[in-house]
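User: Can you help me understand a structure? I only have the sequence.
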Amino acid sequence: MEDEKIFNRTEKKYVISRSEYNYLVKAIKNHMKKDGYYKSGIYNIYFDNDNYDLIIQSIDHPVFKQKLRARSYRGYNKVFFEIKTKINRNYTDDSDENLGYKRRVLITKKDYADYIKNKADFMTIVQRDSEQKTDIQIAKEIDYMIKHFDLKPKILVMYDRESYVGDDELRVTFDTHLKYRTANLKFSKNSADKPYFNDKKCIIMEIKAKGYLPLWLVHALSEKNIYPQRFSKIGNIYKKIRKEQDALQ
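Assistant: Let's start by predicting it. Here is the structure, written out as tokens:
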């Protein structure tokens, strides 16, 4: 699990099959190593207002977009509260090559729950746990976004992740078992969890790099005709939720 407070990198996404995954992993293992947290269960709680303005804006593929989410990991007692910003550098085509920025603070699950329930002041929580000016500034931004845009927890997105790291901050992840729910938004599994993909073999691959991809990886992708595409987990899940709601009306 990553512990940087602020970082940026180019991100590319791919939706691949199990056979494509098996092929790529063989190539990856020859050039990359397993992350320190090689396998993890990830829970993301996305914040929005009652009109879902942030998610809808993201779906429209603007050049600039922001998301606010709280992320935790299975078996982990802390929460990364983060602002995720993306700048689409190729907004004229169908690819999903973004320059991504994250600014986040780390708090306990209890402090997160107290803040969401209005039992504690966010700045007090962060100031108590950290004296770094960076943390305080990020906390101010998060607190401002929530209050100014009337944001609240709206959708929980969860999946299992397999991570590899390489030279020059190259990072490749594979996400499986993508699920979601809109109620009881806690960092845990629930019987109400719904799978996003009908085909359980679908896998979301993300490649994150500081610069150009290494040639061995470019060749591996080209060999199987695997190309980047637009795929926002929260955006696609929101559209699926709207279809389900429309079907009930």
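Now, to help you interpret it: The first helix runs from residue 18 to 29. The longest strand covers residues 33-48. Let me know which part you'd like to focus on.
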